[in-house]
Amino acid sequence: MATVDGVELPAYFEHYDTPVKLVATPDGGYAAWKLDRSTGGWRPADDLVDDVIGGIGGEIYVRSADAFVQHVEQLRGRHLRGEGEIFALYDRVRAINEQALAEKRNYTADEAALVNGIRRRTFVMFEEQLQRAGDPGADPSIVDGSSPKLDGERQ
User: Fold this and answer.
1) Does residue 102 have a pLDDT over 80?
2) Is 150 a member of any domain?
3) Is 151 part of any domain?
4) How many domains does the chain have?
């Protein structure tokens, strides 16, 4: 497994509320990618490597793969609009969220499981679409290797 400054790759972060991933490259190096909220795709973020590795705490958090996926999809669902199956699923999550907010309550266990499952599905669908379009930062396999939420981790 590749490492950068003692951090095993891939590594997932939240950098000032923006998902950032640090991944190994085929040449033995690494690349950083951050979510572009306007497109849902990935932008190069190598300039953030020192910041995310050295600045953990404050507004920079290490995330499990699953928490990273959930955060990416929460932001995509909030900021993107369109047609098709992915956007229909985003609308479904939005409706569940709006109902809970209207009733001034947290998700029920069933709602939380449904939202989590939908977001895992939309992540894979969106990443596969990005790959077909040639986005070098796209990686639907993150879902396959996801780990459980760490204790004390925000969602």
Assistant:
1) yes
2) no
3) no
4) 1
Give 87-130 as a DSSP string: HHHHHHHHHHHHHHHHTT-PPPHHHHHHHHHHHHHHHHHHHHHH
Task: Please compute Rg for the chain using Cα positions.
Answer: 16
Contact 97, 105 (CB under 8 A): no
| Mean pLDDT computed over 99-104 | 97
The residue ranking higher by pLDDT, 146 or 88, is 88
Q: Rounded CA gap, 128 and 111, in Å? A: 26
What is the total residue count of the chain?
Answer: 155
The residue ranking higher by pLDDT, 41 or 55, is 41
Determine the structural domain holding residue 36 and report its residue range.
Answer: 3-142
CA–CA gap between residue 113 and residue 132 (Å, rounded): 29
Check: pTM over 0.70? Answer yes or no.
yes
